[in-house]
Amino acid sequence: MTLFDDKWESRWEKGGRFCGGLDPDWERIPEQNKERGTRRAISSFCRETAESISEYVAAFKPNLGFFLAQGSEGVAALEALCRHIKHYFPDTPIILDAKSNDIGPSAAQYARFAFDVLGADAMTANGYLGDDSLEPFFKKYPDRTIFVLCRTSNPGAGKYQGLQTFR
């Protein structure tokens, strides 16, 4: 069992049935929040969302792309959000939705950011680079969960996922 498994089971027993996405799309953040600055706007938007769905979720899933789009202020907001969740909802796991991966040394840095910096319980990683690229996630963080992206359901995915190549 991993940290994620323990927390997920706890939330499931308490009625948490879905994964709550925390995707601070700048265009959807209320204008009154934006007046307080980027970091505060994102932080308050995500905290309010987390608090409003907390009783229904088995996990919180912040999507890294939305935070990165706001630069260092967005990353600071993500760090603050993870601290907030760990403090106020300690039994609810955090899944960093990053779909990241690369060769070994780079993959290790993605894992370090997710687990050491943010304190996430799980993350999504791209499996298209093969087993050796996933090894840093599993080897150094055996107590964490990795959701490996191997096929997606979006309409255009088949163009590349089902691509037949010939030599």
Describe the protein in words:
It is a single chain. The chain has 8 helices and 5 strands; from the N terminus they run H-E-H-H-E-H-H-E-H-E-H-E-H. With 167 residues, it is α/β, with parallel strands linked by helices. The strands form 2 sheets. A 3-stranded parallel β-sheet has the order 3-4-5. Strands 1-2 form a two-stranded parallel ribbon. Helix 7 links the parallel strand 4 (122-126) and strand 5. The longest helix has 18 residues, at 71-88. It is globular and about 55 Å long. The model has no long low-confidence stretch (mean pLDDT 93).
Which blocks of ≥5 consecutive residues have pLDDT under 50? none
Q: Name the shape in a single word.
A: globular
Structural class category:
alpha/beta
Terminal Cα span: 44 Å
What is the N-to-C order of secondary-structure elements (H for helix, E for strand)? Answer: HEHHEHHEHEHEH
The largest sheet has its strands arranged as: 3-4-5
